[in-house]
Write a structure and sequence with these properties.
The structure is a single chain. It contains 16 helices and 7 strands. It is an alpha+beta fold and about 400 residues long. The protein folds into 3 domains: about 90 residues, 2-Layer Sandwich (Double Stranded RNA Binding Domain), CATH 3.30.160; about 80 residues, DNA polymerase, domain 1; about 160 residues, hpI Integrase, Chain A (Orthogonal Bundle). The strands form 2 sheets. Strands 1-2-3-4 form a 4-stranded antiparallel β-sheet, covered by helices on one side. A hairpin with a 6-residue loop joins strand 1 and strand 2. About 25% of the residues are buried.
Length: about 400
């Protein structure tokens, strides 16, 4: 029997002996309240769409009042009139990917393509920043304002990290669009914080102090890694993961496999006599037939020497220097010695000329020497030129 659903009626509805019973509203067709045998009450809406009858549960009573449930039912009825199935929409929303789902897809499908160090950095940002903030949120509901707010908050304490986070989110959403999980990328248009390339190089005195400390340091495995970094300009992960079969000590070159380098292709570089001397000495004392820098975990190389590096820098009185700055020091030595940007880029494995261009200011000394030679030649010629 249909009755107008009011608060008084809802309070007085008695539960059926078994199963459930629905009392429909007289004013809004299909709107009713369902009462189960245990006394639970919930508002429902019956409707027809595409020739099929559906029953949608709106919400429980008394959490939902009769007036609020009626208003919600009216909204659903309008959707039905426009050809939208509210129950199908609800199921679709429930099945929609959360940000945690997108991160899982990214980790499974894309992360293995990146270098070990990049994988580690991405996983740290995902676990410490993205998931705590957006993990349970439906990815399609994340908006530009949400990303911008996160970027703004992080900028106050970690401006570069804020940029890395937005860049990672942008990549995740871009891939999610390809995977047809979302339709839009909410990171589009986020203004990044200005970044200034770091230019820290060891000067001659610092290099001398560094070499003196390396000679007596108790951890010679780490000391040799530092020496090789300084002598080759290689990246940290390239050195630490290097295997003996990559080196031709007779031919004097290092063939870095595509999987270990940033440019993702074989990088074959010549080695200096000093680097070869170091490698031959290491080879004669090697405890591993596979890795140059084996770890205590059999079959694996060491992955970091941060503690040893901090100890070395402290003993050498060197401040504000990262391991990566040894790569800059190698490049600066080449530049100051007159090597061209093309040669420096080839040795470092740069794929873009602008990456190497950061060292262009270091050419001042060889350029000044060259122009002095030209000036001397012109001056001498003018003094000795015959008079007409």
């Amino acid at each position: 029997m249909a009755q107008r659903l009011t608060e008084t009626l809802l309070k007085n509805l008695s539960p059926p002996a078994k199963g459930n019973q629905i009392t429909y509203d007289t004013d809004l067709k299909g709107f009713g309240v369902r009462v189960t045998a245990n006394g639970a009450k919930a508002f429902v809406l019956n409707y027809r769409i595409g020739g099929q009858e559906r029953r949608l549960t709106i919400g429980g009573y008394p959490e939902w009042t009769a007036a609020a449930a009626r208003k919600e039912a009216e909204g659903y009825k309008r959707q039905v009139d426009q050809g939208v199935d509210p129950m199908a929409q609800r199921h679709e929303d429930r099945a929609a990917a959360t940000m945690a789902d997108l991160c899982d897809l990214y980790i499974k499908r894309h992360l293995p393509k990146k270098s070990p160090s990049s994988q580690k950095d991405d996983l740290a940002i995902i676990s410490k920043i993205i998931l705590p903030r957006f993990g349970k949120t439906k990815a399609a509901s994340i908006r530009y304002a949400d990303i911008e707010a996160l970027h703004h908050e992080m900028t106050t304490t970690a401006p570069y990290r804020a940029n890395r986070t937005v860049a990672l989110l942008s990549k995740i959403f871009s891939l999610a669009i390809k995977w047809e999980e979302v339709a839009e990328n909410p990171t589009k248009g986020i203004e990044r914080n200005p970044e200034h390339p770091r230019a820290r190089y060891l000067d001659r005195a610092e290099v001398e102090r560094l070499l003196a400390i390396l000679a007596t340091h108790p951890n010679q495995l780490a000391a040799n890694a530092v020496r090789l970094l300084l002598l080759t300009g290689a990246r940290r992960n390239e050195v630490l993961s290097a295997t003996w079969d990559q080196f031709d000590l007779e031919g004097g070159y290092w063939a870095k496999p595509a999987a270990s380098v940033k440019q993702k292709r074989l990088h074959r570089v010549p080695l200096s006599s000093h680097a070869l001397e170091l490698l031959r000495d290491m080879r004669s004392k090697a405890h591993s037939e596979l890795f140059l820098f084996p770890s205590s975990d059999a079959g694996k190389p060491i992955t970091d020497i941060k503690k040893s590096w901090a100890s070395i820098c402290k003993r050498a009185g060197i401040e504000g220097v990262r391991l990566h700055d040894l790569r800059h020091t190698y490049a600066s030595t080449l530049a100051s010695g007159g090597s061209s940007l093309l040669v420096i880029g080839a040795l470092l494995g740069h794929t873009q000329a602008q990456t190497t261009h950061r060292y262009s200011h270091l050419f001042d000394d060889p350029l000044r020497a060259a122009t002095e030679k030209a000036g001397a030649l012109v001056t001498t010629s003018s003094l000795t030129a015959p008079k007409l």
